[in-house]
UniProtKB/TrEMBL annotation:
NCBIfam families: CDF. It comes from Muricoccus nepalensis. Residues 207-284 form the Cation efflux protein cytoplasmic domain. It is found in: Cell membrane. GO terms for cellular component: plasma membrane. This is Protein p34. Pfam families: Cation_efflux, ZT_dimer. The chain crosses the membrane at residues 34-55, 75-93, 113-131, 152-171, 177-194. The keyword Transmembrane applies.
Length: 295
């Protein structure tokens, strides 16, 4: 089992434990804020299952029908997760409307806070791991899961702060008001997740830092060539796609030009990881003098 799949299974296990704790906290208190927190965690469970399915599909090798692989399945999972986050916020706002009309001080606040706090600590540790791993492995599904779990952490932290104030102040309206603020924050996170994933599905270029690294490697590693131009990049899951035209002296042999291409491909993969690299060779007369100069 790959490390990404182990992380996905871990997400499912952690979300199930957190859900059980948060449902227990809601059951002993009757708080609409804790109910909204538990509802958001139910979405974590569903999203973890969706991520597992997407990762299984994305791990399939390229085939005649999908010659570029199946990595984009992860982006569909991330879009689905973002939509689920927005749906959870809508459900929370529905509960807020009813609780605002009939506010009530929750029961057993200290016990509810302790149970919910345990789930929050568990989620915080797991979110930190997923975010770090998702960036290191360049996995959109794992990164989206980490962001989603982090949203759950902020939700729970806000709920706990407001929940502690209700019995201290007697302001029962704080419970639904806090749940409403949490819902707004969840909507923002969900929209951001969908926007990022749709951008990747639309073949957005590599991020500026990685694109700068690609240009640097080409400039420093193409000794013998004259210029590189028409550079195009995109990402699909953890695989980068890099295409460019490489101008070489007209008198250079095919073997010499091919050696430069091999050297560039090795250098690029060493810099940016797994990549599909396409280099179109052109004779000297095709130089555009506006691409990447070879140092």
């Amino acid at each position: 089992m790959s490390r990404i799949m182990r992380a996905a299974w871990g997400s499912l296990a952690v979300s199930l434990v957190a859900l059980g704790l948060k449902l227990a906290a809601w059951w002993v208190t009757g708080s609409v804020a804790l109910y909204s927190d538990a509802l958001e965690t139910i979405i974590n469970v569903v999203a973890a299952v969706a991520a597992l399915l997407a990762l299984r599909v994305s791990a399939r090798p390229a085939d005649p029908g999908h010659p570029y692989g199946h990595q984009k399945a992860e982006y569909f999972s991330a879009v689905l997760e973002g939509m689920m986050v927005i749906g959870a916020a809508a459900a929370i706002l529905h509960e807020v409307y009813g609780a605002w009309a009939h506010p009530a001080v929750p029961d057993a606040p200290l016990l509810g806070m302790a149970i919910n706090g345990a789930a929050t600590v568990l989620n915080a540790a797991w979110a930190a791991y997923l975010l770090r791993a998702g960036r290191a492995w360049r996995s959109p599904a794992i990164l989206a899961s980490g962001r989603h779990v982090l949203t759950d952490v902020w939700t729970s932290a806000g709920v706990l702060v407001g929940f502690a104030l209700v019995p201290l102040t007697g302001w029962a309206w704080l419970d639904p008001a806090l749940a409403g603020l949490v819902a707004v924050n969840i909507v923002w996170t969900g929209v951001s997740m969908v926007r990022d994933s749709v951008g990747a599905l639309m073949d957005r270029a590599l991020d500026p830092a990685m694109l700068a690294a690609v240009r640097r490697v080409i400039a420093e590693g193409a000794e013998g060539a004259l210029e590189a131009h028409d550079l195009r990049t995109r990402a699909s899951g953890d695989v980068s796609f890099v295409e460019f035209h490489l101008v070489v002296p007209a008198a250079m042999t095919v073997g010499e030009a091919h050696a430069i291409c091999d050297r560039l491909e090795d250098a690029l993969r060493a810099e940016i990881g797994e990549a599909v690299i396409t280099i179109h060779l052109e004779p000297e007369g095709q130089a555009q003098r506006r691409g990447v100069p070879v140092l």
